[in-house]
Amino acid sequence: MHLSTTYRNRSFLQLVGVLLVAAFAGLFTLYYVTDVLDRYFTEHSAYLARQAINNESESLRREALAHARIAASYRLAGDTQRQIGALHYYYQRTGQQNVQIFAPDGRLVHGDPDSSTALNDAQRELLTPDRDSTDGSSVGLIRTPDGPALAAAAVIPSVEEHQAPPLLFVLAQPIDDYELLQLGFDYGLTDLHIADERAPPDSRLQLAYVDGSPLFLSWMAPTFGRELLHNLLPVILGSALVLALLVALIARDALRNAARLVASYNQLNASRSQLESSEKRFRDIAEAASDWLWETDDQLRLVYLSGRFEAITHYRISDWLGRPLSDILDCEGQALRDWLESGDTGVLRCSYTDQLGNQRIGQLASRPIMRDGLCIGYRGAASDITERVREQRQIEHLALHDPLTGLANRAQFQSYLDENLAAAQPLTLLSLDLDRFKQVNDSLGHAAGDAVLKEVSDRLRQYTRAQDLVGRLGGDEFVMIICGPISRDSLDQLSQRIIERLGQPMDYQGNEIHIGTSIGTASAPEHARDADELMRCADVALYQAKKAGRETWRHYSGG
């Protein structure tokens, strides 16, 4: 008896020691993991902050370079005043803000000299691209009365040698608290703001103005590791104490009642109780799950359906027992029997029609039922993924279409144009700009403007074929791609019909609205072989149509 007591006490102390070592190892591991998480997210947040500023700078530089190239297409040989007049007209039409254009002698020829983002001579000199610059552009931070701003400069080159010297195009973007908060939101940075050198070094980014002086940005450093530690530590400690107590009690009872637990009668009763509990747990889970469970015999005839089957399909279970599983499920691209017999552990997409006539989409998972090495049937679960598939299709549609009009957006237009140009398919691009649309917004409101844009989209669809594309690039700017060769007479007739159709009055809440449109056309491969050049040609033709008095069309004729 004494030996038995000594053995039990020694075993108990050993168990306690093992639990303490395991608890210490677990706590140390948790602390190490949370510390690694904090250091990783701190370093990653600094990387994201720098990446955000770099991406904003590169985006502004590319935008300035694109505007400089567009401005270059407006340059007219030998007449600087006409060049500047054309650029004035362009930026007044587009409503572009914070734009400045400088002559080679530093004189401001376009822009507001009293604007908060206006460059002084020193800033202009520092921002002017070097002669050996690959694309004639630069970007940097400048000081303004309202705070820091990001400025990009690009050279507007002379198209021909005898033209006036190049001009300098500058596009400025103020950096205020709202812009930084929005930028931080886009990159997952909390409370991104302008700071000074006193900000914590692990959440501070040092930038430099073009004159070399520093600019500091700061944000709230993430502390996911510490938060995880604070949240989990009490739970882990409490669970460890409860577990230790339970283990101690179980160990004591197990040692005390070891002789009786060996008895076969008690083992049989315990096994029977566990089996009944398992069956009850299975039934409870099957009835509470969102999926419906099924089981078949070796001929794939249904022998069991869970209660969720009726809730999801609205069929009665009794009507389907004994019938083949394939009677209700239509699997895509593969016979159901072949898939089940293949032993595939993945899922199979299938479809079925419920009692209400609704088409549903599901995922089928299955396992064979083996007995004595033979398959006597199959059991598995059917998950309803109809809403998930519908949401995915909606997301894919929104990624490629304008949400207001349902037309192709800029991404789909660019992809479609690149694909057809890469295949060397002849096509014609029509660039359309609505006339008097701004008056509609100003007089009747943006709701009326949206209604006009929808009506314009519906009318433009009437003039496209299945292989053509019509899209909205933004605002009142529309494009059409006519695939295949088309004669000049046919193109003239199409342009005339579009102008006449869009010129017909529209009704909005009892108000008769009149707008017009101007069209510029360019063809590939006659005028260009890449998308950017073809767009430029169409824009030049559109500008010529606008200049000719609006509500007309012009074909690109070079220049």
UniProtKB/TrEMBL annotation:
<feature type="domain" description="GGDEF">
    <location>
        <begin position="425"/>
        <end position="558"/>
    </location>
</feature>
<dbReference type="Pfam" id="PF13188">
    <property type="entry name" value="PAS_8"/>
</dbReference>
<protein>
    <recommendedName>
        <fullName>Diguanylate cyclase</fullName>
    </recommendedName>
</protein>
<dbReference type="InterPro" id="IPR043128">
    <property type="entry name" value="Rev_trsase/Diguanyl_cyclase"/>
</dbReference>
<dbReference type="InterPro" id="IPR029787">
    <property type="entry name" value="Nucleotide_cyclase"/>
</dbReference>
<dbReference type="InterPro" id="IPR052155">
    <property type="entry name" value="Biofilm_reg_signaling"/>
</dbReference>
<dbReference type="Pfam" id="PF00990">
    <property type="entry name" value="GGDEF"/>
</dbReference>
<dbReference type="InterPro" id="IPR000014">
    <property type="entry name" value="PAS"/>
</dbReference>
<keyword id="KW-1133">Transmembrane helix</keyword>
<feature type="transmembrane region" description="Helical">
    <location>
        <begin position="12"/>
        <end position="33"/>
    </location>
</feature>
<feature type="domain" description="PAS">
    <location>
        <begin position="278"/>
        <end position="330"/>
    </location>
</feature>
<dbReference type="InterPro" id="IPR035965">
    <property type="entry name" value="PAS-like_dom_sf"/>
</dbReference>
<keyword id="KW-0812">Transmembrane</keyword>
<keyword id="KW-0472">Membrane</keyword>
<dbReference type="InterPro" id="IPR000160">
    <property type="entry name" value="GGDEF_dom"/>
</dbReference>
<feature type="transmembrane region" description="Helical">
    <location>
        <begin position="232"/>
        <end position="251"/>
    </location>
</feature>
